[in-house]
Amino acid sequence: MRNTLLENAFKFAHEGIVITDEHHKIVDINDAIQQITGYSRSDLIGSDPQILSAESQNKILNQTVWQSLQRNGFWHGEVSNKRKDGSHYVARLSVKRVNALGKVFYLGHLSDITADRKYRAILSDLVLNRNSHQILNKNRLENEFRRMSMIADNQNEKLVVAFMDLDEFKTINDIHGKAAADNLLDQVPARVRSVLSETDSIVRYGGDEFVLIIGGMKNHAAATEIIQKVLTAIGHPFVFNDVPMMVTASVGYTLYPEDSGSLDTLIRHADQSMYKAKLDGKSTVIAYDPGEEVQITERNQQLREIATAINEDQFVLFFQPKVTLSTGNIFGFEALIRWQHPQKGLLMPDKFIDQVYDTELEVSLGQWVICRALKQLAEWQQAGHNYQLSINLTAYHLSTSDFIDWLQQQIKRYPDLDTRRFQIEILESNRLSDLSLISNVVEFCKSEFGITTALDDFGTGYSSLTHIRVLPVDVVKVDQTFVRRMLTEPEDCKIVEGVIALAQSFNIQVIAEGVESIAHGEVLLAMGCNQAQGYALAKPLPGEQIKNFLANYEPFTQWCAQSDLLKNHKQARLSLFYFYLKHWMHQLQESLFAEPEIKTEWPITQIADSHCGIWLEKASYHHYFDNETIAKITQYHHYIFQSGNDLLASYLAGDVHASRAGYQAQVNTFESVLAELNSLIKRMTD
C-alpha cells in the first residue's frame, strides 16, 4: 500500500519531479514535468537535464550546482529554463543526492514561478510607482535649483550641486536583507538634512544615489567642509530592528555659477566626479574640474585609437621568463602586452592600459591577449616545449557573463592543446568585489581545463588576506615594488617574508617579481621562495628572441648552490642573516669607492634598524638557535658593523683616502667573518 501511495504522490504532484542517475541522465519524470516543459516522457528519458535549461543559463551556475551536490548533497535556487516550444520560464529548483539500491541518484523538484515573478514586478511598480516617483523627483530638483540659483545670483554666492552614492550598498542588502536596506535608504535624507540648513535640498535620484543642492557657499573649501560633514553623518550606524548597519558614501560636486550649464549638465558633472571619488578609495569627496571636459575628449580619442589598434593588430606580446631558483630551470613565461604604435613606436602598458579600464575595450584587449597567448602556447607544444604561459586579466573581465563560454570557444580551436600549462594572473585585485563569482570562475577554469590561477601584485591591497583565503588560487606573486627594495628597505623585506610565509601556510605556490640581482635570489631562497622573474634573469623579450635567449641561458650557480636551504630550516634562517650581512658589506664598499657624481644606496648605520639587527632580535625572541650560537653571530655582526661605521664616518669627514685604505686593510678580516658564518651554516641541522 505504501508503494502505491508513493507512486500516486509522484505521479500526481503539482511540482515537476525529475530523477537522474549518477551519470546525469534522466531515468524518470512525473506528469507535471511534461506539463511545465512541453517535453514528452520519450523526449526526456535518457537525456541530460541540461535540455531543460535556457541557452543563456550561466555555465558557472551549472558547475556550482553540481559542486554543491558533491560537497553537500543538496542545492536549492532559481534557474532560467526553456520549454520545448522555445519559450522561457523561471523555475524554483531543489536537487538532492539520494543513495538507493546501492547507486547514486539525484532527485529534482521543479516549480514554474514565472507568473509569480511577473505579479511581483507589477505589484512592485504599483507600490513604488517608480516612473512617477522619478518624474516627481526631477521636477522637484528643477524647482529647487531654479529657486536656489536665483538666490545665489542675487547674493553673489555659489551653489553646490552634489551627487552622492552609497559605497558597496549591495553588501547591506546581501547581509541584512531588502527590508533593512530599504529602511536605511529611507533614513538617509533625514540624516543628511541634520547637517544642512533648512533651505538646502536632498532628493533620492534612484537606487542608492542622491542629489544634494546646497546654498550659501563662498568657495570650494566651504563646499568640501559641508560635504565632509555629510559623509561623517552617513558614517554613523543606521539602526533597523535594533541591528546597526554601517555604510559610507562617495560624493562628487560642482559649483554653480562657475559651472554654468543646465541642471542636467551639473548633475552629470557631479556624477563624473563621484565616480572619480569611488576610484580614489571611496568615502571621499571630489570636486568637478572644468578641464575634465578636455580630458574626457582626449580619453575618447585615445579609446578610439586603442580600438583601431586592436582591429589592426598593432599590439604585440613580449615574454618574460620564470625560473626555479634552486635548479635554474626556466619553467615558463609571462606574456606582457606592448603597443607597436605606428607613429609613437613601442609603447609600454602604462601609456594605454589605464584608459581601457571600465570600458568595453577592457574585455576586448583581454580577449586579444588570450587569443595570441593560446596560439603561442599551441606553437610551443607542437615544437615539443612544455613551458607554462601566464597572461594578465582584470577581475572585471573575469566577471563578465560570457567569459567562460567565450574562453571555451577559443580553446576548441586547439584540440591538442594542454591547457594545464596555461595560467591566468588576476590583475587589479583591489577591484575584486564579487569574490563568490570570481571564485566560481577560477574553480570552473581549473576543473574544466586545468587552467591555474595566480593573484598578481600580492601584498599591495588591504584585502589581500581575504582574497587568498576565499579564492581557490594556485599561486601568489609578490609585488615587484617590495622585492626590488627588500635589500635596502627592512620594512619591504618584512612584507616579502610575510607574504611568502602566508602563502606557504595556505599551501599556495609563491613567485617573486622584480628580482634584479643575484642577492635578491639568494635572500628569496633563504625565505623559502623558489620561483622568480625579473631583470636579473631577463627583461621581457619579443617572441622571436626567446629561442636565442634559451640557447645562451646559463643558470646562476649562486642560486643553485643554495638548493639545500629549502630542506633545512636552520640553515635557511642563518643563511638569511649571512646574505643580509654580505649585502650590507657590498653597500659599504660601493659607498666608499664610488665616484662622487655616482649616487649609491648608503648602508643603514643604525644597528637596530638594519636587516641584521632586526634578524638578531627576532632570532633571540623565538630561540631559533642556542645562546652560544646567537652570541657568536652577534659578535660577528657588531664587529663588522662597528668597523664599517667607523670607515663611513671617516669618509663623511672628508678623509676619503683614509677610509678606502682602511677598508682595504680590513677586507680580509671581513671575508674571514663571512667564511666563519658560512662554515657555521653548513654545520646546522634541523
UniProtKB/TrEMBL annotation:
GO molecular function: cyclic-guanylate-specific phosphodiesterase activity
Domain annotation EAL: ranges: 299-554
EC id: 3.1.4.52
Signal peptide as annotated in the record: none
Keywords: Hydrolase
Residue runs in coiled coils: none
UniProt-listed InterPro entries: Biofilm_reg_signaling, EAL_dom, EAL_sf, GGDEF_dom, Nucleotide_cyclase, PAS, PAS-like_dom_sf, Rev_trsase/Diguanyl_cyclase
Broad class of enzyme this protein falls into: hydrolase
PAS domain residues: 2-72
Keyword Amino-acid biosynthesis: no
SMART domains linked: EAL, GGDEF, PAS
Domain GGDEF: residue ranges: 157-290
Name of the protein in question: Cyclic di-GMP phosphodiesterase Gmr
High-level lineage: Bacteria, Pseudomonadati, Pseudomonadota, Gammaproteobacteria, Thiotrichales
Gene that encodes the chain: gmr_4
